[in-house]
Amino acid sequence: MKILLIQCPTSHLGAGEKVYPVGLARLSTLVPPKDEKCCLDMNLSPDPWPVLKETVLGFKPQVVALSFRNIDPLAGHQTSYLSSLATTAAMVRRLAPTARILAGGPAFSMFARRLMAEIPEIDAGLVGEGERVFSHLIAANFDPAAIDGLVYRADGEIKQNPEGAAIDLNTLPWPDTTTFAPGAYGGRNAYVAAMGIEGKRGCDLACGYCLYPFLGGRRFRLRAPERIVDEMQRLKEEHGIGLFHFTDPVVNRPKNHFIALCDHLRQRKLDVAWTGFFREDDLDDRTAGLAREAGLAAIYFSADALTEHGLALLQKRMGIEEILAAARVTARHKILTVQHVLVNLPGEDRSAHFEEARANLERLLTIHAPAANLGAVVFNTVRLYPQAPLTRQLIRRGILAADQDLFYPVYYDPPATAHVRHRLEALCHRAMVFDRLGMDRLLAGTAQPTR
Fold first, then answer.
1. Is the alpha carbon torsion for 207, 212, 215, 217 positive or negative?
2. pLDDT higher for 231 or 192?
3. No. of H helices and E strands in the chain?
4. How many CA atoms lie within 13 A of 168 on its CB side?
5. What CA–CA distance (Å, rounded) separates 127 from 163?
6. Cα(201)–Cα(167) distance, rounded to whole angstroms?
7. What pTM, to 2 d.p., does this model score?
8. Strands across the sheet with 374-380, in order?
9. Max alpha carbon distance in the chain (Å)?
10. Out of 57, 203, 344, 413, which could bridge 249 as a Cys pair, Cβ 3.0 to 4.6 Å?
């Protein structure tokens, strides 16, 4: 069989930020040696369409596997990546009319049946993890009815098989760094690490907007720390990778697993740096110090609200004081910190909420000012997904119509209070510029959000 692996375009046009397709690279390892394979990451080219055409015509694939990572870019953008997947599938079908076209990836898992209906060129797609069944997907004796998690066409209908058991993360195949060369991603990114590393899948939290439990399960499935560090060491020694980003929903939870990971990194002395999303109430001075010694370069916090109402609404299971305490820890250890905040949430429509958000933002800025360790505060509104708890809650309360189409980007952002985000951004921007230049900043009473 001739297998073509394609990472579909899922990045901001012109942003220049590239992400190594670690999921597809793992699947590439599972292609049998007797088969011939070819790969294409369409995100590496400013204009990927001529490259796609040339690749399909030149390789003449019998099976094409399309990896679809993101349905849209988030960050409040009213942009969908559906067109990229649809055009890719249509071009492959036109140029290789007899090829079996498969789809998978997190974005496909979220909207599998809808994507099959929207893009008729896709023959079958996988919901969930591909490592356990990929060899069956690309086999010559392909039997769709026998493959766990497969969505496929039969008798004029779209059918879906139940998902199978979750895989043991310690059996994850190494990324195929020959077919997907890490060197193609080096030195390109200004803001994020290009190379991802997996420490766990699933999540035992239940944040109202989040799909990690839906995609990976409602408990953490942990990868052995030595296996994680083995992969980092191999990528460092063989490809010179010095910066990684943990793809985990929360890198420092559970705490004992995180401490063991830091211990292994310290013992190996790999001289690598890494980043990840942290949970505030699981961070203390001990774990922050260990992480620093283990190569931690930056912490991303996703508190996602600046009011107690917002934290409760999003089911964060912590309060503002825990968020501020974590900020003090990173300031004491001078760890570069990026804070993500959702604003204009349902119910945050009173002046008291606006004042609370402004006051708590000011407290965060004041904590970080002496250490100058706050890299950014990223303000967004909440993207509503059909599988998310918050979406179901809004439907029950009559705030969101039950038949609202959430396939394309839908954000909760009432126009009457949309200005709050911009006022908070203005306050934050002034404070961070003044701090960087060593100027006094009189925050109190400035740029207060008003209704």
1. negative
2. 231
3. 15, 17
4. 4
5. 7
6. 10
7. 0.93
8. 195-197, 243-246, 273-278, 296-301, 336-342, 374-380
9. 71
10. 203
Name the helix (H) or strand (E) containing 335.
Answer: none
Task: Please answer whether residues 41 and 7 qualify as being in contact, where contact means their C-beta atoms are separated by less than 8 angstroms.
Answer: yes
Write the single-letter amino acid at 199: G
DSSP assigned state of 202: S
Three-state DSSP class for residue 431:
helix
What's the number of CA atoms in the CB half-sphere (13 Å) around residue 127?
22
Q: What are the C-alpha distances in Å from 17 to residues 44, 218, 258? A: 9, 30, 28
**Token pair of 67, please?**
């990896």
Integer angstrom CA distances of residue 142 from 101, 146, 160, 442: 12, 9, 16, 67
| 178 touches 184 (CB < 8 A) | no
Q: Assign 13 a pLDDT band (cuts: 50, 70, 90).
A: low
Could you tell me which of 92, 95, 94 has the C-alpha nearest to residue 103? 92
Interatomic CA distance for residues 262 and 75, integer angstroms: 31
Q: Rg of the chain's alpha carbons, rounded to an integer?
A: 23
CA distance 317 to 95: 52
Q: Are 66 and 112 in contact (CB under 8 A)?
A: no
Residue 444 has pLDDT above 60, yes or no: no
Structure tokens at 287: 């774990």
Is the CB of residue 12 less than 8 Å from the CB of residue 73? yes
Sequence-ordered list of residues with C-beta below 8 angstroms from that of 105, at least 6 positions apart, any chain: 8, 23, 66, 67, 68, 69
Q: Which of 10-24, 116-130, 177-191, 192-206 has the lowest mean pLDDT?
A: 10-24
Which one-letter DSSP state was computed for residue 361?
H
Amino acid identity, position 31: V
Q: How far is CA 88 from CA 28, 122, 164, in A?
A: 19, 10, 28
pLDDT single digits (tens) 214-230? 999 999 999 999 999 99
| Residue 313: how many other CB atoms lie within 10 Å | 22
